[in-house]
Design brief:
Helix content is 44%, strand content 10%. By secondary structure, the chain is mainly alpha-helical. It folds into two domains: 101 residues, no CATH class; 171 residues, no CATH class. The chain has a three-stranded mixed beta sheet with strand order 1-3-2, with no helix packed on it. Strands 4-5-6 form a three-stranded antiparallel beta sheet, covered by helices on one side. α9 packs parallel to α12 and α10 packs across α11.
């Protein structure tokens, strides 16, 4: 399926593939036209698989004799039947009376029926948990991403409340009735963000000790994501540019590198830009509400920090504050009580990523 998807990116590629298939069929017809029968047994019968898939002539009776140990001509002449499968042929070789009570065809049909029924039953169970066909978006309590068991991928979920200004799970809503409960949720959210394994719902982070191949694939996914944010494209718009379905494009934007080969990612990236000309930063801004929604909204901040061998240094903090004053988009969009909240992308260092979360202690903006 991956090869098929790669080969159908443009009309020219499809046309070239059809021409190759047509030439292959012509060669097969020429082989049949010039075939004068098997030199060993004189049979004109040829194996269909070898002809259609490998474009070569193989004597079918000789092939059956080699693999099944039977003579097809003798079988047809004496019994007017062919073995159902290799198991049937083995039974006939051991018992010449096997054909009188052969039930191999019924046995094979029953096995196929049970296998198909089991698969259908599993699909029906998945369908019970899936509402994609009845509604384009699954209704949940939050405007988040949810996992569809039937589609086996993440899909967008619609919120139940419907208010445009409503925040997820009430964590950052203004004027909450229970301020103590709100503070607890706030602290819990910060702990989740500070977890080194947290990458946002549905978003894949690099595994520990990644290989060169994984780093390359991850880097390309990040570049495509940065391109989308730079040009303010929707998922559907960027999917059209790289000739992919929206679902597959979302997998790239979520950096799900296991779903793609490196060659495929390079092909898609070349539809957008020259890889060597694209610069992507390692530190980018995102706010807490976007994290709670499970999707990283990236902005190119072009940040550069210093650090020592033990961890984050004072020089890093100083540069951090300077950048905060220089970049207008770092002004917080959300407040929690009297706190302005900022969240910065992780900064990679020594095979770890430091996520910087900071806020002003009070509304005077004097204590960070």
């Amino acid at each position: 399926e991956q090869e098929r998807a790669t080969g159908y990116n443009s009309f020219e590629e499809v046309l070239a593939q059809k021409q190759i298939e047509q030439e292959k069929r012509l060669r097969q017809l020429e082989l049949l036209k010039s075939y004068s029968g098997c030199l060993e047994c004189g049979s004109w019968g040829v194996d269909a698989w070898s002809l259609l898939e490998e474009t070569r002539l193989v004597c079918q009776p000789c092939l059956a004799r080699q693999h099944w140990g039977i003579n097809l001509s003798e079988w047809l002449e004496n019994f007017l039947r062919l073995p159902v499968n290799k198991s049937c042929a083995d039974k006939w070789l051991k018992d010449k009376e096997h054909l009188s009570n052969c039930a191999c065809l019924e046995t094979e049909a029953r096995e196929n029926y049970l296998l198909t029924s089991e698969l259908l039953k599993k699909n029906e169970e998945k369908l019970k948990d899936c509402r994609c066909e009845s509604s384009p978006k699954i209704r949940v309590e939050s405007d988040s991403w949810t996992w569809c068991e039937r589609c086996e991928r993440s899909i967008k979920a619609a919120r139940n409340g419907g208010g445009a200004e409503e925040e997820v799970e009430g964590v950052f809503e203004e004027g909450e009735k229970n301020q103590t409960n709100s503070d607890q949720k706030f602290e819990q959210t910060l702990q989740e963000l500070e977890n080194p394994n947290y990458a946002g719902e549905g978003f894949w982070s690099l595994p520990e000790n990644p290989t060169t191949l994984e780093k390359s694939k991850y880097d390309i996914c990040q570049k495509i994501l940065a391109y989308q944010q730079k040009h303010k494209l929707t998922d559907k718009e960027i999917a059209q540019r790289i000739n992919l379905t929206t679902g597959e494009t979302e997998d790239i934007l979520f950096c799900r590198i296991d779903y793609f080969t490196l060659d495929r990612l390079i092909t898609y990236a070349n539809e957008l830009f020259e890889l060597l000309e694209v610069k992507i930063t390692k530190a980018q801004e995102r706010n807490v509400s976007q994290l709670a929604n499970g999707r990283k909204k990236r902005k190119d901040l072009n940040l550069s920090f210093g650090h020592d061998k033990q961890g984050i240094s004072n020089e890093l903090i100083r540069k951090l504050m300077n950048k905060l004053n220089e970049i207008p988009i770092m002004k917080p969009k959300k407040r929690h009580g009297n706190r302005d909240i900022y969240v910065w992308e992780r900064i990679p260092y020594n095979n770890k990523k430091y996520l910087i979360v900071f806020w002003f202690k009070d509304d005077t903006d004097n204590h960070l």
